[in-house]
């Protein structure tokens, strides 16, 4: 009421903010008279007749709608349309900072690349270039702001940067770089000649480097597994990316939104055995999950082999691991077994940090096996690897997928309901 009655005071406050609080100019736009816009680090400032009109904070859930008339000519904020010939430049500078609308004006959907319990990924093509991207389509919820915020904080080669986020009626579309390589699960399964020690070192070094960066930002992933480790380019282990931050959260929170979550076979036992939904745990949960990935790379088998969601989860909770299979590798046990065992400790306090893992002598060991040794090892590995034999088609996606629950039930783990329908009305006209 005060600002409405005293517009001059409001104008002075805006001017102070523009000049002193947010003083780095990124772009100046001449809009359709009498308007002008100045884009700065944290705000988009709109002027009318050279007087500040209002400022839009550059953060979620704020929204800009792009307006098309024979091409992109303007944008809409708070039901006001502003026209400019530099709208594409503005959009580029705003990428990943706040929500956009009308994804159909910028991208054409081509196919579904994958689908999980709460999201699906579409292959899309830009209408303004020949570039292809991945669009993660997720149902609207308040946790999306945190997932996007977390992604934007991770400035490291092990993570995919968010380019844009579009808002639909009931869904968000997160535009990211397209990862054309296999995920680690596919790589292990399809690598007929097996993974060499050098390949294992590269994968684990890249994975732990990403986890180290993440933990330094007080972020934990909570769903590290082979399916969430993807190569941006086929046969290039240096392009490894950690994906899917749907379960990620901050370690500094006093209470987690979803305290009990993860994937059976990879979830840390302190999470699998959680009975108090108000309890917290540390980022060492990611070290356990990375250790389970490490174990599989070295042995070709799961840490907790078996069939079915509940059975694997029960083994996961007990955390009784057979480390004897590590002797299949022709490398000194003190080089490898010590690191794997520590990473897979049931007690999180006994696990090393990601930095301590990276400093382990395993990553400097370079005694490469001969071709004959590699053939012998992988023949033995295939013979001892347990193949999961699902008893019914319905059981398979449960075992593969992550679980999320707010209700801590000691005897039974509740699965998050699968979302069968997404709001893709923006794309249906192209199907």
TrEMBL record:
Residues 107-363 form the Protein kinase domain. One of its GO terms (biological process) is mitotic DNA damage checkpoint signaling. Keywords: ATP-binding, Kinase, Nucleotide-binding, Serine/threonine-protein kinase, Transferase. GO terms for cellular component: cytoplasm; nucleus. One of its GO terms (molecular function) is ATP binding. The keyword Zinc does not apply. Pfam families: Pkinase. The keyword DNA-binding does not apply. This is Protein kinase domain-containing protein. It comes from Paramecium sonneborni.
């Amino acid at each position: 009421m005060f600002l409405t009655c005293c517009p001059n005071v409001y104008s002075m406050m805006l001017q102070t903010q523009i000049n002193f609080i947010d003083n780095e100019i990124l772009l100046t736009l001449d809009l359709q008279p009498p308007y002008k816009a100045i884009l700065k680090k944290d705000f988009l400032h709109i002027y009318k007749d050279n007087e500040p009109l209002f400022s839009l904070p550059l953060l979620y859930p704020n929204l800009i709608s792009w307006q098309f008339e024979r091409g992109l000519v303007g944008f809409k904020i708070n039901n006001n349309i502003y026209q400019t010939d530099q709208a594409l430049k503005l959009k580029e500078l705003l990428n990943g900072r706040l929500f956009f609308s009308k994804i159909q004006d910028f991208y054409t959907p081509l196919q579904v690349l994958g689908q999980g319990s709460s999201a699906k990924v579409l292959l899309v093509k830009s209408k303004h270039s020949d570039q292809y991207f991945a669009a993660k389509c997720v149902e609207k919820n308040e946790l999306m702001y945190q997932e996007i915020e977390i992604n934007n904080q991770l400035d490291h080669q092990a993570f995919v940067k968010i380019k844009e986020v579009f808002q639909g009626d009931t869904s968000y579309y997160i535009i990211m770089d397209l990862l054309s390589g296999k995920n680690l699960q596919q790589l292990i399964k399809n690598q007929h000649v097996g993974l060499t020690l050098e390949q294992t070192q590269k994968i684990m070094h890249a994975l732990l480097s990403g986890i180290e960066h993440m933990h330094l930002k007080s972020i934990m992933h909570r769903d590290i597994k082979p399916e969430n480790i993807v190569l941006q380019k086929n046969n290039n282990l240096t392009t490894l990316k950690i994906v899917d931050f749907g379960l990620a959260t901050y370690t500094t929170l006093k209470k987690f939104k979803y305290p009990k979550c993860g994937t059976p076979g990879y979830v840390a036992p302190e999470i699998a055995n959680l009975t108090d939904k108000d309890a917290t745990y540390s980022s060492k949960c990611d070290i356990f999950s990375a250790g389970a990935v490490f174990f599989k790379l070295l042995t070709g088998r799961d840490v907790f082999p078996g069939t079915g969601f509940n059975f694997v989860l029960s083994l996961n909770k007990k955390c009784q691991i057979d480390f004897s299979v590590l002797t299949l590798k022709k490398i000194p046990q003190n080089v490898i077994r010590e690191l794997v065992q520590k990473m897979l400790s049931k007690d999180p306090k006994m696990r090393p940090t990601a930095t301590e893992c990276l400093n382990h002598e395993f990553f400097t060991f370079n005694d490469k096996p001969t071709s004959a040794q590699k053939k012998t090892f992988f023949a033995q590995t295939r013979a001892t690897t347990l193949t999961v034999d699902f008893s019914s088609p319905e059981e398979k996606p449960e075992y593969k997928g992550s679980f999320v629950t707010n209700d801590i039930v000691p005897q039974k783990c509740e699965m998050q309901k699968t979302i069968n329908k997404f709001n893709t009305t923006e794309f249906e006209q192209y199907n």
